[in-house]
């Protein structure tokens, strides 16, 4: 792996462990133990990815997330959250975090997530996406499966396009709702679930065991191409 990683974590053992792991994987690692220093580093040192603890001295992870996004910085942010705190996850995602891992983490999973974000070119625009036997041409709004045209409703297509542009990101229902349905119409989170169900039926090999559009319990969805 290549890149600059910022770790903001006040638990010394975790910070040290993470630092060692990612240095061994070739990353340049900066570590900050309090929120204020973490935020300053996030704004000034241009990391390629931030691993962000939530409960931090002085400034918490939510505020850091909000402040970074308010500055228009779109560095990937992966939150380190406590197990069973789905409300923290949802709040963080709604403030602009991209993903989360729960403590205690499985190291292999954490490395895979970090790798996926670092591999992605920020701002890189792809018009044609392929996954499984599906091909999606965004400009012409066409979807084919095994070469056969698949008919999507306008919302299904918008939702799929939104997922494709955010591979590997955890997306809360609120975020999806605002982005795909907008504020103007009255829609319920249930509408998203319904749209996901019909979309899965059209693109998944086995819609009951979805491979691409994965459900994150109590949070939302994640698209894994
Ligand atoms: Ca903490």
Kindly describe this structure.
The structure is a single chain. By secondary structure, the protein is of the alpha/beta class. It folds into 2 domains: 4-119, Rossmann fold, CATH 3.40.50; 128-223, Orthogonal Bundle (Arc Repressor Mutant, subunit A). It contains 8 helices and 12 strands. The chain has helices spanning 12-24, 35-44, 61-70, 86-94, 107-119, 154-164, 173-181, 189-203, and strands at residues 4-8, 28-32, 49-53, 77-82, 99-103, 128-131, 134-137, 142-145, 148-150, 170-172, 213-216, 220-223. The strands form 3 sheets. The chain has a 5-stranded parallel sheet, sandwiched between helices. The protein has a 4-stranded antiparallel sheet with strand order 6-7-8-9, covered by helices on one side. Strands 10-12-11 form a 3-stranded antiparallel sheet. Strand 4, helix 4 (86-94) and strand 5 form a beta-alpha-beta unit. The longest helix is centred in the C-terminal third of the chain and has 15 residues, at 189-203. The two termini are 20 Å apart. 32% of the residues are buried.
Quick synopsis:
This protein is α/β, with parallel strands linked by helices and 225 residues long.
Task: List descriptors.
225 residues, alpha/beta, Rossmann fold, Arc Repressor Mutant, subunit A, 12 strands, globular, binds calcium ion
């Amino acid at each position: 792996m290549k890149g600059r990683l910022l770790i903001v974590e006040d638990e010394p053992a975790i910070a040290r462990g993470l630092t060692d792991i990612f240095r061994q994987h070739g990353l340049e690692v900066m570590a900050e133990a309090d929120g204020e220093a973490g935020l300053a580093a996030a704004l000034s040192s241009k990391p390629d990815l931030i691993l962000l603890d939530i409960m931090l001295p002085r400034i918490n992870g939510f505020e850091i997330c909000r402040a970074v996004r308010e500055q228009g910085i779109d560095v990937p942010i992966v939150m380190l959250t406590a197990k069973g705190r789905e409300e923290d996850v949802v709040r963080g995602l709604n403030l602009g975090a991209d993903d989360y891992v729960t403590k205690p983490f499985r190291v292999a999973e954490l490395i895979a997530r970090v790798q996926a974000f670092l591999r992605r070119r920020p701002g890189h625009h792809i018009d044609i996406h392929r996954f499984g036997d599906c091909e999606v041409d965004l400009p012409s709004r066409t979807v084919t499966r095994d070469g056969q045209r698949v008919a999507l409703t306008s919302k299904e297509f918008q939702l799929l396009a939104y997922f494709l542009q955010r591979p590997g990101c955890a997306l809360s229902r609120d975020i999806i709702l605002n982005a795909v349905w907008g504020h103007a119409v009255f829609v319920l989170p249930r509408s998203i679930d319904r749209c996901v169900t019909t979309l899965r039926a059209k693109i998944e090999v086995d819609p009951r065991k979805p491979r691409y559009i994965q459900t994150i319990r109590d949070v939302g969805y994640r698209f894994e191409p």
